[in-house]
Write a structure and sequence with these properties.
The protein is of the alpha/beta class. It is 53% helix and 12% strand. Helix 7 packs parallel to helix 9. Bound molecules: ligand LV5NTVZW and [(2R)-2-oxidanyl-3-phosphonooxy-propyl] (Z)-octadec-9-enoate.
Length: 375
């Protein structure tokens, strides 16, 4: 292990990264809170400002993935569709097998200039997470309880609000509703069998209602569905802790652009269309596993320097006062103030570790584990 690798895996580096993320993130949350009065005077301006502020947070995740760990993300897609990416609104339908799929998603959003405005149908539990969950509130992210009776009106209303969004956005949908585990897969395939649907090997059976309600409510404002399949080379299953420790991975993403007008409007027809899509996604995964690549050509989607620039700026901004504080604490601080500071830092590290824990599949919810919808 070289010196740089050793340094990247050192806990002190992780604590500094965690501190920069939490301190800058809470500052951004505070700035977002300050934009509240603007919503009454100029809603579109408030939304644009919040996209820029959100970018300050999510691009730190991209900096961590692309620049710190050096993970590579390769895009397989039709070159004819490439110019449209980032220039129109799209619904992204992605498999949900990996703990860092959201980071890879963010990395692609960043490359196409839609990171600040990206949207997702996300479980309500994540709304309470400091920094990210609070940022999402101001970005009008759509939250769901994964209980259709309670979600159907709230989700539709949140989606309708996005129709006049001033920035191009991608709306991410993990139609499987939860991360893939062997147990959840087995149960969902029992459901598939009962419903007379073909079995899937690499995906859980998709939940169709969220997709249908999204297509229904965003029709006219969203132009296409981006059917996306993510996988990692060498059978790797990356973790956020691995990335934080500077481990380099290689992600491959296959994207197919499907015009929205080709998706049926009726609920049953739309559900059948989604089930067929997942059978095709399953075939793409199988092809990747057999051959190590997705169909179609690789298209270069270069990284931009902005996540790194943003990260460095925030680091200087929040590390400088910390340094000044620590020097004065060591030189003039009482034992009590030193103890209070140590306790505060320990609490902040625990919060950061808890946030990382939210990405771990082994700590995931029980949703989809029982052939019913219990979380
Ligand atoms: C060019 C580059 C292109 C792309 C780049 C890629 C990506 C970048 C894009 C954007 C990035 C943006 C942000 C990323 C950042 C962070 C995101 C991180 C993670 C958060 C994600 C989540 O939180 S996932 C969880 C929440 N989301 C969902 O659940 C969505 C899917 N779910 C639904 O749609 C559901 O229908 C629902 C949530 C709306 C309602 O839930 P409910 O449970 O009530 O569902 P249903 O009513 O559908 O369930 C009952 C039906 O399901 C059948 N059933 C029962 N048991 C099972 C089972 N085990 N498996 C499958 N099906 C089951 C049951 O029989 C019912 O069937 P019906 O026929 O009656 O429908
Ligand atoms: C420079 C520092 C950069 C720090 C980088 C960001 C680190 C932030 C730490 C944590 C981010 C947490 C983001 C949570 C979003 C992902 C969570 C997730 O993937 O949810 C799973 C959900 O779909 C389904 O849940 P279940 O499988 O049912 O359970």
């Amino acid at each position: 292990m070289g010196l740089v690798e050793l340094l990247k895996s050192h806990i002190l580096c992780h604590l500094i990264i965690g501190y920069v993320f939490l301190a800058s993130g809470l500052l951004v949350n505070l700035l977002q809170l300050c934009t509240l009065p603007l919503w009454w005077f100029n809603k579109q301006l408030a939304r644009t400002v919040n996209c820029r502020l959100g970018y300050c947070i999510s691009s730190q995740g991209v900096a961590l993935l692309d620049w710190w760990s050096g993970t590579k993300c390769t895009l397989y897609t039709d070159p004819k569709d490439y110019p449209m990416y980032g220039k129109e609104n799209g619904i992204v339908v992605l498999n949900h097998n990996f703990e860092v799929d959201f980071l890879c998603g963010w990395s692609f959003c960043e490359r196409f200039g839609v990171l600040g405005s990206s949207k997702v149908l996300v479980k309500k539990e994540l709304a309470y997470m400091p920094v990210i969950g609070w940022m999402w509130y101001f970005l009008e992210i759509v939250f769901c309880k994964r209980k259709w009776e309670e979600d159907r009106i709230a989700v539709a209303q949140s989606l309708k609000r996005l129709r006049d969004y001033p920035e191009n956005f991608w709306f991410l949908l993990f139609c499987e509703g939860t991360r893939f585990t062997a147990q959840k897969h087995q149960i969902s395939m029992e459901v598939a069998e009962k419903k007379g649907l073909p079995k899937l090997k690499h995906h859980l059976l998709p939940r169709t209602k969220g997709f249908w309600v999204t297509v229904q409510n965003l029709r006219g404002s969203v132009v296409a569905v981006y059917d996306s399949v993510l996988n990692f080379r060498n059978n790797e299953t990356p973790t956020l802790l691995g990335i934080l420790s500077g481990k380099k991975y290689h992600a491959d993403l296959y994207v197919r652009r499907i015009p929205l007008e080709s998706i049926p409007e009726g609920e049953a027809e739309c559900a059948a269309w989604l089930h067929k899509l997942y059978q095709e996604k399953d075939n793409f995964q199988e092809e990747y596993i057999q051959t190590g690549r997705f169909p179609g050509p690789i298209v270069s989607s270069p990284q931009r320097p902005w996540p790194l620039v943003n990260w460095l700026c925030w680091s200087v901004l929040v590390l400088y006062p910390l340094g000044v504080f620590l020097v004065s604490l060591v030189s003039t601080g009482s034992t009590l103030s030193i103890l209070v500071s140590v306790a505060f830092c320990s609490a902040a590290s625990l919060v950061f570790r808890w946030m990382i824990g939210q990405t771990e599949i082994s700590r995931g919810s029980g949703y989809g584990n029982k052939g019913n919808n219990n979380g």
